Amino acid sequence: MISIVGGLAPILAVGAVLAIILLTKPSYFPFECKGNRVTVRRKEPGKKNYRIGLIAGASTLTGGIFLKSVDALTSNVVAIVGCTGCSIAILILLRHSIRGLRTLQVQERSMSTPYTFMQIDEIREARSRWWLGRLFKRLASPRHSPGA
User: What is the pTM of this model?
Assistant: First the structure.
C-alpha cells in the first residue's frame, strides 16, 4: 500500500498544482486579441529575466556530482523528486500562459469563428516554401480514390 501511495504521490502533487493554477483567477493576460486573431505579448510587467542556461548548467553539474555519490536506489528517488520538482516549477513559471489559454478557450466557445494566429498568413507562406511543410500538407490532405 505504501508503494502505491509513493508511486502516485508525484502525479498527485503535479495534478494538485495544476488544479490550483486552473482554479485561481488570472492576474495577467499574456495574449492580445484583435477580432479572431491572437498573438503573444512579449513580456509581462515586472517579470525578472532568468538566465535559463546558467540555471540548467548549474543544476546539471550539481546533479551529476550528487548522483555519483549515492547508490542506485537513492539516485532513482532523487531523480523522481527532481523531475517532480521541475514539473511543478515549469507549471508555476508558465501559470499565466496556462490561465490565458483557458480563458481563450472559454471565450472561443462563445464566438462564431475560432481563434487563429495573428501571423497566420506568414505561417502559411513559410509552410508552403519548406519541403517539410509541403510533405506534411500532402500527408494530411484526404486521398482521392482512383475511380473518382
Answer: 0.65
- Overall average pLDDT of the 62-70 stretch: 75
List of residues 6+ apart from 96 with CB closer than 8 A:
26, 27, 28, 29, 30, 44
Nearest to 76 by CA among 1, 2, 4, 7: 7
| 105-to-32, 95, 120, 124 alpha-carbon distances in Å | 14, 15, 19, 23
Q: Tell me the one-letter amino acid at 58.
A: A
What is the spatial distance between Cα 78 and Cα 108, in angstroms, rounded to a whole number? 42
Q: Residue 72: which residues within 8 A CB-CB, separation 6 or more?
A: none
Cβ–Cβ under 8 Å, residues 91 and 17: yes
